[in-house]
Amino acid sequence: MADVKGTAQPQGKRPGALPEVRALTVADIRQSLAEGAADFARCPAVGLMIGAVFMVIGMAITLSLLVLHEPWLIYPFAIGFPLVGPFAAVGLYEVSRRLEAGQAPTLGEVLRVIWAQRRREVSWMAFVMLFVFWIWMYQIRLLIALILGRMSFATLDRFVDVVTTTSEGWIFLGIGHVVGAALALVLFPSP
């Protein structure tokens, strides 16, 4: 049974009831990947369109760094990844929902569902992800200044060399990963 917004309501559940949270296992991940691959095989257009959006953002990041020599452009393009993610998930979930209901999803229908999410909680989730991503980007800049501040790395090759071959670089990577993991735990807490 679907509600007014077009999202499915579980059978036997009253509206507003909290969902049951289960522990995630490796078998669950395998099953999800298999079901996602099966859904993609039945309706590849939406998956390819969403993949194309991510590919264009990735190409823009690469071009801004390697071809245009404008590394500052990486920030706005990189911000697109966490903003696009929740909407991409809505589209993929909608394809699976329609296939499970025995309907043949079209790209237009799925795009309408994605567009409708801009007025719902998904927009707030994208904003929260953007905010945490922004904090992460600034903590990286702070760590570069505190740990690698006296080192010179004007090129990407030199930066990779400094980060991977010096003790300061290893400290930078270690602390950066710990801080990034803490931010990820804030954003995606475990039950």
Automatic annotation (TrEMBL):
<feature type="transmembrane region" description="Helical">
    <location>
        <begin position="45"/>
        <end position="67"/>
    </location>
</feature>
<feature type="transmembrane region" description="Helical">
    <location>
        <begin position="169"/>
        <end position="188"/>
    </location>
</feature>
<feature type="transmembrane region" description="Helical">
    <location>
        <begin position="122"/>
        <end position="149"/>
    </location>
</feature>
<dbReference type="InterPro" id="IPR018692">
    <property type="entry name" value="DUF2189"/>
</dbReference>
<protein>
    <submittedName>
        <fullName>Membrane protein</fullName>
    </submittedName>
</protein>
<keyword id="KW-0812">Transmembrane</keyword>
<keyword id="KW-1133">Transmembrane helix</keyword>
<dbReference type="Pfam" id="PF09955">
    <property type="entry name" value="DUF2189"/>
</dbReference>
<keyword id="KW-0472">Membrane</keyword>
<feature type="transmembrane region" description="Helical">
    <location>
        <begin position="73"/>
        <end position="93"/>
    </location>
</feature>
